[in-house]
Amino acid sequence: MTCSTPSKKYLEILSRKSVRLSKPTPKLIVLDLNSTLLHRSKKKRTRGTLRPYLKEFLQYLFDSTEGTSENFDFSVMVWSSARPQTVDALVDKAFGRYRSRLVAIWSRKKFGLNEHAYHRKVSVIKDLETVWDELNRHHNNHDGSSSESLNDGIYTSITFSPSTTPRSVPSTNNIIEMLPQAIDLDTINNTSSHIWDQTNTILIDDSPSKAVLQPYNAIHLLPFDSPRRQLAKDKELLNIIKYLEFLKYQDNISAYMKEHAYVSTEFNQEIAEKMN
Ligand SMILES: [Mg+2]
User: Fold this and answer.
1) Over the stretch 146-169, which tens digit does the pLDDT of each residue have?
2) pLDDT 10s digits, 169-181
3) What distance in angstroms lies between residue 33's CA and the mean position of ligand 1's atoms?
4) How far is the CA of 211 from the centre of ligand 1 (A)?
């Protein structure tokens, strides 16, 4: 790993105060899988327990503005440090019919690890510059009019989408099964015309260490781990919906989140109890 502090450019844009807009603007949501949306089984890595309120969370991300006059969209992608085959299975489990609405599905292959590190438990950083480079380049090269690889080697299904908005795309009709050797899944469902950057991107990941390069673009929710799985009261995904309701109006996500970081309400309560 070369550098693990935010770039000068990041800090410069971070210093520009966010303005609350009268209407929401499109935002890119980068979702982690394990301990964020589900708890992955230790024995069978491709199995997992879904986090409470995941259904509501996905409905919010994908359907909340459907049929409304709000000119607003979340573009949603997955980036997990698990291997492609695991990611593929977990995305199926977590997203179901929403899978085809993801703008990209990224796995361990996108960390630029060498062969040795790829197969070992090493710490990784989700550098959002990689996301921005690739998604924006895709848009510039193709003007949103053709299928192009935005996925990284997940091979179960491949989706060809028309250049219409994802809302009009049937979620299952255009999936073609591919053989495992047909690496580089080509899925692009959202032909967004937006340039993604730190002003409009939100990483949702339970691990702060993965977000050190763009620390103020990340929501760190409480990990949905083994002990937490036993708790019926886990409401992190509902809490995040409430937080996103504020974020969607902001014109500089990084600056806003620096000033108003996401804090679990449950965590607030713990702090309050200690203070009393
Ligand atoms: Mg995680």
Assistant:
1) 344 566 655 433 333 333 333 333
2) 333 333 222 323 3
3) 6
4) 11
